[in-house]
Amino acid sequence: MYGSRGVMFGSGVGSKRQRMMQSNPPYGGFPVVRLRGLPFNCADVDIFKFFAGLDIVDVLLVSKNGKSSGEAFVVFAGPMQVEIALQRDRQNMGRRYVEVFRCYKQDYYNAVAAEEEEGAYENNEVHVRAKSCSESKEKLEYTEVLKMRGLPYSANKPQIVEFFSGYKVIEGRVHVVCRPDGKATGEAFVEFETAEEARRAMAKDKMSIGPRYVELFPTTREEARRAESRSRQ
User: For the stretch 179-204, what's the b/e string if a residue is b when 16 or more beta carbons lie within 10 angstroms of its beta carbon?
Assistant: First the structure.
């Protein structure tokens, strides 16, 4: 039987977490990944099934105001398990594809600390990181182009134009990135009339298209052209 944090009762998750935080392992050996795009009704057991065959030590589901955020941290028995887990990036859980990322140890530490205090991960670490991320993006040099990441595979150009309703998008310069086999990657490039308009459109960062929230990043025309060229190969 699993406890509320996805580990077996009696496994000593508290002591395991504390040992991990005290050990301060290097990034390359940190045995944690972060998941994004989980179904909102996802439970610990679903994550265990998703990573079937791997040795999971702990699952920390991230909530926002008491509701599932679609994100989680998963602790594995060792770094080799992490390498295998990363190969499951963009595989499906139900009808949703799940993104699997390496986890910076500070992200995990902050999540654990917030959860240990009041279970208020959203009110602590997420807001801090969101502010930090926004500030970092503000410091970047903007061109007329934004990159979108985390789109539903079914997203099309009209949906993207509608997403940026109220902003001056050049409709002929919206490119949904596809693999050579024609399948969508969940990314797109959007060109605006001016760099300032692209900067203004960053207000849509982390807003949703369908069931998924979308991340926006400043980028260049050159990167957009390279992505379009790869899609045509």
Answer: eeeeebbbbbbbbbeeeebbbebbeb
Alpha-carbon distance of 211 to 233, in angstroms, equals 30
| Half-sphere exposure (Cβ direction) of 83: Cα atoms closer than 13 Å | 5
Q: Which two three-digit tokens encode residue 18? A: 């504390």
Q: Hey, is 72 helix, strand or coil?
A: strand
What residues contact 159, with CB distance under 8 A and at least 6 apart?
209
pLDDT tens figures, 173-193: 999 988 777 888 888 999 999
How far are the Cα atoms of 38, 149, 153, 214 from residue 91, in angstroms, in the given order?
11, 16, 12, 18
Distance CA 88, CA 168 (A): 37
Give the C-alpha separation, 228 to 199, whole Å: 22
> Does the model's pTM come out above 0.85?
no
- Confirm if 44 and 98 have CB atoms less than 8 A apart: no
Nearest to 205 by CA among 194, 222, 190: 190
Q: What is the pLDDT of residues 138-178, one digit of tens each?
A: 556 788 999 998 888 889 999 999 999 999 999 999 999 88
CB–CB of 22/16 below 8 Å?
no
| Closest C-alpha to 192, from 172, 207, 208 | 172
